[in-house]
Design a protein that fits this description.
Blueprint lengths: L2 H9 L16 H14 L1 H28 L4 H40 L1
Length: 115
């Protein structure tokens, strides 16, 4: 990866795969096919995503139970706070996931299809 592209990725992270320079000419359906093909070649990434879902859900349940028992919040308030924390965690995760894993995965698939 050239220095200019690396610097741009560091200063302004991508929020969607359509913003990647190597996918800018593709439509959403083609990008999904490309990403799906790359994910099937790397089953470990699917396992990581499933593990992330279990961890976030477990943390949300634990946080809701802890907040409900230790504060004056009712169950509804505790679930709202825990849900907000889970949402924030997933937004951060997705930002990192898109800029590291999905970028490299789609770049490899584009390079593989061009050969």
């Amino acid at each position: 990866m050239d220095e200019k592209l690396r610097r741009r990725r560091f200063l302004r992270p991508y929020t969607h795969a359509r913003q990647f320079p190597h996918l800018s000419s593709m439509d959403d359906a083609a990008i999904r096919v490309l990403a799906r093909r790359g994910m099937t070649r790397r089953p470990g990434l699917i396992a990581v995503m499933k593990f992330r879902n279990v961890v976030v859900f477990s943390a949300m349940i634990a946080a809701a139970a802890t907040l409900e028992r230790t504060t004056s919040l009712g169950l509804g308030g505790a679930l709202m706070v825990a849900g907000g924390g889970a949402t924030l965690c997933l937004l951060c995760w997705n930002l990192v996931w898109v800029n590291t894993v999905i970028f490299a995965l789609t770049k490899d698939e584009v390079d593989r299809s061009n050969q």
